[in-house]
Amino acid sequence: MTDVSTERSRFEADDQGWFGEPGLFGGRFMPEALMAALDELTVAWQDAMADAAFVGEFEQVLREYAGLPSPLFHARRLSDRVGCRVLLKREDLNHTGAHKIRNVLGQALLTKRMGKQRVIAETGAGQHGVASATAAAYFGLDCTVYMGAVDTRRQALNVARMQLLGATVVPVESGSATLKDAINEALRDWVASVDHTAYLFGTAAGPHPFPSMVRDFVRGTGDEARAQCLEQYGVLPDAIAACVGGGSNAIGLFTAFLEDDEVDIYGFEAGGDGVDTPRHAATIHAGDSGVLHGARTYVLQDDDGQTVESHSISAGLDYPGVGPQHAQLAHSGRATYLPVTDTEAMEAFSLLARTEGIIPAIESSHAIAGGLKVAEQLAAEKGPEATILINLSGRGDKDMGTAIEYFGLGEAGR
Amino acid sequence: MSAPVSGARTAAAFERARAEGRAALVGYLPAAFPDVEGSIAALRTMVDAGCDVIEVGLPYSDPVMDGPTIQRAVQQALDGGFRVDDLFRVVEAVAETGTPTLVMTSWNPVERRGVERFAQQLDDAGGAGLITPDIIPEFALEWIAAADARDLDKVFLVAPSSTDERIATTTAQCRGFVYATGIMGVTGTTQATAEGVAPLIARTRATTDLPVGVGVGVSTGAQAAALSEHADAIIVGTAFVRTLLDHADDRDAGLAALRTLTEELARGVRRA
To answer: Where N6-(pyridoxal phosphate)lysine occurs along the chain (chain A) (predicted)?
Structure first.
């Protein structure tokens, strides 16, 4: 592996949080009231990551509490179907059911180190909220979770989980009452409470240092997957794939492979009803450069710069922005981002359940759907030895309500 | 037109207030709330009843610094079909009164229109400058250049959490006045107090000769009076918005209530 320890990788943000060319993607577009807190967080995060004791404790918690490393699984029946090797990084087996536990345990551990006693979080599907409530319970922190009122209704089970874990769930009625509005409300709380409260940002977006910090906490997904692939199969994958909403699971997988130029990188966005309709969340594919939630990135917006409401069958991908590092990876061509429709995702959801006995999150089903298309291309180009590694970022328990409705399940029969 | 630094577009209003031994009253309403014509009528009423400077808000889908009251008004404007071109209509109609008229806006609509184009349209409408609550000077270089080229006022914010170093960096880039946030929080939530704000104002004054206005958390004449002992301007938004929301079904009554509130606040800045 290339030694990049003595100089900044071309994929790292600079001191102001810009990815790639300064001014292009990232930065810190936030009220002055939060600058001191963002500076404090930046220093605390950088100090912590340079402290072997902190990193050791983080790794121990991940191992002993979150059940990591997650396995790398050879999906044989899927592989037979597409004609080459399909590997799944089983983040769905993590405690609380997704990659997100890595991020929140890292941020909550950092919160303890900073001497703060309260955490706030925003959540769309509820997965980050459940993970945050879990981490708060584990570390003994007070926890408030902001969730769009629409999402509280479609993810009632996760609301109950958060409450059981001791968190206060605040439904947000403003705007579209979805994830972006939950982020706005959490930011407003943070402006008023920043002296004693940490904001556990749920994805690799937002103002500097969140995109880099979240990436650092979730990059274990890719580090593990890369090592497991080499150990179990003796080769790097030809391609890797993940779903992209805000992009935390994707950046978690991608980071370890960015310097491996021979590995093609794919992110799959929520194409909703189709990117030629108004109802999708394919931000990189169809968005324009703008500033949302503290960073310059691709944003679904109208001619006046007003955010356009996104749509996805997956609440977890239903976000009109994207982490700025993804914007840079797309802009530079290092990664390729493609849309996957609701229908394609649900077909993949069903396919994975029936071929491998795994019910994935609908978010992850986007990665499966897109990844299998790539796999078919790889098989045609390189034959059965080709390998694609797909991040199965979460499990589908939380999405059963959607699945029951979509497939008309629950009646005896098939 | 080139103006000396002391000739910032809002300067005359601040100098007049200072000459009268009082603070200036700055009043905020979102453009197109309750609708375009209604916002013009309301803002002109505020001018007529004693506001020295006007802030016109640009309704934006994802405001961070706005509390629930202002967001409700902003959402009404957006639901009513607000477009950024409407903003400039409102600015022009208010600036015609001779009262300095600034735009308060989140950053993305400016960037989306193009910073140069936005600045030119603001200038053409007779606007005095921009108040930018979600961008700090280090990230606003393009706006600073565009404003400097046209002598538009650049009002950045300082907060109780700002370090002295950051206050100095911020005030060095301001023209017109400096906006000091009275509380750690968003608009219309908790109330600012003189004891709470005075240290920030003092720290700000140590870095600049510009007037210092206090906003966020200010809504009553009594507060205006108390804060006037420390600040050069009192900035009020949520209270004006609430007055119109409270009279949503009767526009004349809303304007009358707005006049009464403005007069109360104008008396407040004169009681110090």
So the answer is: 100
